[in-house]
Design goal:
- By secondary structure, this protein is mainly α.
- The chain folds into 2 domains: 1-71, Winged helix-like DNA-binding domain superfamily/Winged helix DNA-binding domain (Arc Repressor Mutant, subunit A), CATH 1.10.10.10; 72-104, no CATH class.
- It is built from 6 helices and no strands.
- It has helices spanning 4-17, 23-34, 39-46, 50-71, 73-90, 94-102.
- Helix 3 packs across helix 4 (50-71) and helix 5 (73-90) packs antiparallel against helix 6 (94-102).
């Protein structure tokens, strides 16, 4: 069973990188991670084997983690949000420099 933390991370990565996936991968991901369908239910809807769905979901997972490793979009977004929170909390304008550095 997938851990809740891993599912949340995959959903965040999916939001960032879904346009880089195939239509079939997007559909399987949405069925499984967002609509909570079982592998068997997805297989029946898609007229494929349960194993084919499993393999596609593993590929999606691999792609999402690979894209993040290379592009770091989610990591940088989280860093920016943390700095913005600190800026709002402390009103420390030096944090603006930290934000600018992230964009370099």
């Amino acid at each position: 069973m997938e851990s809740l933390e891993k599912k949340e991370q995959l959903n965040e990565l999916f939001d960032m990188y879904q346009k880089l996936l195939t239509d079939k991968q997007v559909q399987y991901f949405k069925y499984y991670y967002q609509d909570d369908y079982s592998l068997q239910e997805i297989a029946e809807l898609s007229d494929v084997s349960r194993n084919a769905v499993f393999d596609q979901l593993k590929k999606v997972e691999m792609h999402l983690f690979s894209y993040e490793e290379k592009l770091q979009l989610l990591t940088n977004k989280q860093k920016r949000l943390k700095i913005i929170d600190q800026l709002e909390e402390t009103k420390d304008l030096k944090k603006l420099d930290d934000l600018r550095k992230l964009e370099e």
